[in-house]
Amino acid sequence: MDPFFSWDFFSCLKKLKMMSVCGHFVIFFKCTALLSLRIVLLVPAGLPVRSQSVSQSDKNFLGNITVKQGETIFLRCAQGEIVTHTAWLNRSSILYAGDEKWSVDPRVSLVTLNQEEFTIKIENVEMTDEGQYVCAVQTSRRPTTNIVHVLVQVPPKITNLTRDIVVNEGANVTVLCQAIGKPEPTITWKLISSSGDLSTDDAYLEISSITRNRAGTYECTAVNEIDTDVKTVDITVNYAPTVYDGRDIGVTLGQRGVLECEADAVPEADFEWYKDDRRFLNGFDGMEIVNTGSLSKLTFFNVSYGDYGNYTCVAINKLGSSNTSIVMYGPRAVQDGNGSTLGVHLDTCLLFIVFLFLLLKL
Q1: Mean pLDDT, to the nearest integer, of 297-310?
Q2: Is the pLDDT of residue 343 over 60?
Q3: What is the reported pLDDT for 199?
Q4: Is the per-residue pLDDT at 359 higher than 70?
């Protein structure tokens, strides 16, 4: 009979469980040495260890058990004969010897122990639970070693992600997304803003000479066979203002006139209004300036002759400036294709023509 499964082995289990180390040092030392030797022979690390004791027992490989992190596994060992001693081991640790629990892990418990079956369970499985488990059974005929390998799958988790960044247009940008999991997760990037069409399959996302249409929210996805983890990074691209062409307006004397100026810029532009070299300040001479995001409005509440003319709107941010011209004219003024006034006093022109006609007739 294999010494590993002799009474001495299982007797040592009980002795180590019950004795006082200080009072039985010699017994403790012998039993510990015996157990260590038998465990090493039973559960080899690296290359298989061949010994006379192991070769005399039946070794059955029960296969792999694949479990997701956090789930519960049942380790079942069929016995089928008159069993004298039995134990479940994990690598170099004894989990159960018969109905006696050796593991201090509260997640490990005994489910079934009878002549046909010896089953334990491990709840809330962790990565550290992965590895080889051995059910050692001593029957009336011969010892049996049942081996099963537990594989723990872990859902992906993004652990390292570049924070939201702000860059100037034309800069080179690199963002990183790293994840853990088992099987190893695959990383993909995607620009999810409405104007985006960029995607890549790499932990590093590199954008050379970034433009404003590459700004937006980038989505990092880590995926394996178990699950998916998604996080996002916002990339803000700063650029100088671009002012849209202003629209000239005609306003009747005494009426309300509004000049509008719109600019595209990041960060948002500050607006300044001028007539000739004179800058307008809010509330000056019965007019009002209201800036809302990308739009600025210059409002005259009671238009007079002196308010007619050419106005300049300037949009400014830290990267530059841009401007446009807007004309406010009276209702009888005529505009050319460029928006400039050809005649402000049409009545005067008509009177001059009538005068010339009468002069020639005389």
Answers
A1: 94
A2: no
A3: 72
A4: no
Q: Please tell me whether residues 47 and 150 are part of one structural domain.
A: yes
Neighbouring C-beta atoms of residue 152, cutoff 10 Å = 20
Number of independent structural domains in the chain: 3
List the one residue out of 75, 71, 78 whose CA is nearest residue 121. Answer: 75
Which of 214, 238, 262 is at the close of a domain?
238
Is 355 a member of any domain? Answer: no
In CATH, what number is assigned to the domain containing residue 314?
2.60.40.10
One domain, residues 16 and 99: yes
Beta strands 58-68 and 143-161: pairing type? Answer: parallel
Q: Domain of 14?
A: 3-154
Integer Cα distance of 88 and 96 in angstroms: 5
CA atoms within 13 A on the CB side of 251: 24
Q: To the nearest whole number, what is the mean pLDDT of the chain?
A: 81
Confidence band of 195 (pLDDT split at 50, 70, 90)? low
Tell me which of 99, 133, 154 is where a domain ends: 154
Instruction: Flag the least confident range among 132-136, 242-246, 329-333.
Output: 329-333
Q: Can you give the pTM of this predicted structure?
A: 0.67
* CB half-sphere exposure, 218, CA atoms < 13 A: 30
CA torsion sign for 271, 275, 276, 278 is: negative
Do residues 129 and 152 lie in contact, with contact meaning Cβ atoms separated by under 8 Å? yes
- 27 and 150 assigned to the same domain: yes
The answer on pLDDT for 224 being more than 80 is yes
- CB-side exposure of 58: number of CA atoms within 13 Å? 11
DSSP class per residue in 139-167 = ESS-EEEEEEEEEEEEEEEEEEEPPPEEE
**Is residue 324 assigned to a domain?**
yes
More confident residue, 143 or 301: 301
Cis previous bond, 331, omega within 30 = no
The rounded Cα 283 to chain-centroid distance in angstroms is 48
Q: Within this chain, do residues 64 and 168 fall inside the same structural domain, yes or no?
A: no
> CA-to-CA distance for 216 and 263, rounded, in angstroms?
19
Per DSSP, what are the bridge partners of residue 233?
A: 218
Q: Which residues does 359 contact at the CB level (< 8 Å), separation at least 6?
A: none
pLDDT above 90 covers a percentage of the chain that reads 60
